[in-house]
Amino acid sequence: MVVNLNHVIDQVVKDKGVDRAVLVEALESAVLSAANKKFRNTRDLEAHYNTERGEVELFEFVTVVDEVQDSYKEIDLDEAREIDPDVECGDSLGMKMESGSFSRIAAQTAKQVIIQKVREAEREGIYNEFKDRVGELVNGIVRRYERGDLIVDLGRAEALLPHREQVPRENYRQSDRVRAYISDVRMSPKGPQIILSRTHPNLVIELFRTEVPEIAEGIVDIVSCSREPGSRAKIAVVSHDPDVDPVGACVGMRGSRVQNVVSELRGEKIDIIPWTPDMARFACAALAPADVARVYVDNEEQAMEIIVPDDQLSLAIGKKGQNVRLAARLIGWKIDIKSETRAAEIEKEGLTDEAPGEESSEEADCLPEPSADMVIDEEQQS
User: Fold this and answer.
1) Do 20 and 113 lie in a common domain?
2) Which domain does 152 fall in, by range?
3) 343 shares its domain with 382
4) pTM for the predicted model, two decimal places
5) CATH number, position 187
6) How many domains does one find in the chain?
7) CATH value at residue 26
C-alpha cells in the first residue's frame, strides 16, 4: 500500500516551518538516488512528486531505435509504437515504473528525508533565533560537564559555557541555574553553537541594565567597563539628565541595585565612577580611593603620568597592580604612577622626560572627587 505523503508534508510544513518546495525536492532527489542505487545506475530515471496521489513517481526513459543494443536504455521502434503510436526513431520515451516493487524503499526514503529536513529546519530555526540575541543575558540550567566546559539548557537549545569563559572560583552542579552572556552564535556541522560567557565585561553592563531602569531607558549610559572576573570591576557612567545622578542611580537605595549585581557575580567588587570628558579628572576618579596630587597628560601618546602622595602610592597601584590596571583599561590610556618623593628625585636628576608607561594596581570602593590641589596639563583635551 502506497503511503499518501500530502498529509505528512502539510503537517511538517505547519509544525516545523520547513518550506514545502524544499521538502518535495528533497523527497524526489532521495527516491531517485535510492532507485539508481537499486538498479546500479543502469537506467535513465527521473522522479516526480504527484501532488494528487501524494507519492513520488519514478519514470524510466529510453531512446527509440531501429536496432536495440542496450536493453536498459533503448527500445525497438515497433515496441515503442505500441505505447505511443506517434513516436519516431531518436525520440525519448518515458514510462512510469510499477510502484509495487519500489514502494517499500520509497516509503523508507521518504521517512528518512522528512526526519532529516525537520532536524535541519529546527537547527536553522534555533540559529536564526539566537544569532540576533548576541549580547543578551540568558538564564539556563546546567546539564553536564564536558571536559571542563558546561552544557547549559536554554529551553529550545543547549548552549556551551567554555572553561575559559567561566570565573575560576565559580562552581556549578547539575540542575543549578546559571545566568550568562551570549558572546557568540555560529553554525557548525553538528548544528548551531551558542557560546556563553561569565567573564565578558559586557555581562556587568547587561546586569546593570536589568537592575537600573535609568540605564534601560537611556537616561544613564555605561560608557566603559573594565573587569578582572571574580575579583573586581570598574564601570564609568554618565547621565543625560542633569537631575539624575548616574552613580546614585546605579547604587540604588541603600546600595540595593549594585548589591544585586554583586550577588549575581558571586561577590565581585564593583567601583562605579562618574565619567567626564576631562581625561585627567576621569583618571583621578578611576584611581579612587587614592588621592592624586598632580597629573601630566600626553594627548598624542594617550598617556598620563600621575603623581600621588607617598602614603597613597600602594593604594593607587593596588594589590598586584589591579587598581591602576583596571583604571587604565577603563579610560583606555596608559598610566604611570609615581610617588611625590620619586617624582622629586627624577626631577632632581633631570629625568622628567621619561615616557609614561603603564604600571599595575588594586582595591577601590569609595569614589571621592579629585582633590583640589591636582594640577592638570594645559594642553589636555576634553
Assistant:
1) yes
2) 133-197
3) yes
4) 0.69
5) 2.40.50.140
6) 4
7) 3.30.1480.10
Domain contains 282: no
Domain boundary among 229, 247, 275: 275
C-alpha cell recorded at residue 337: 604612577
Do residues 240 and 355 share a domain?
Answer: no
Nearest to 127 by CA among 159, 166, 164, 149: 159
pLDDT tens digit at each of 382 positions of the chain: 456 788 888 888 887 777 888 888 888 888 888 888 877 888 888 888 888 888 888 888 888 888 888 878 888 888 888 888 888 888 888 888 876 656 676 677 777 887 888 888 888 888 988 999 999 999 999 999 988 899 999 988 899 999 999 998 888 999 999 999 999 999 988 889 999 999 999 999 999 999 999 999 999 999 999 999 999 999 999 999 999 999 999 999 999 999 999 999 999 999 999 999 999 999 999 998 888 888 999 888 899 999 999 898 999 999 899 999 999 999 999 999 989 888 888 888 764 454 454 443 333 333 333 333 333 333 333 3
Q: Is residue 303 part of a domain?
A: yes
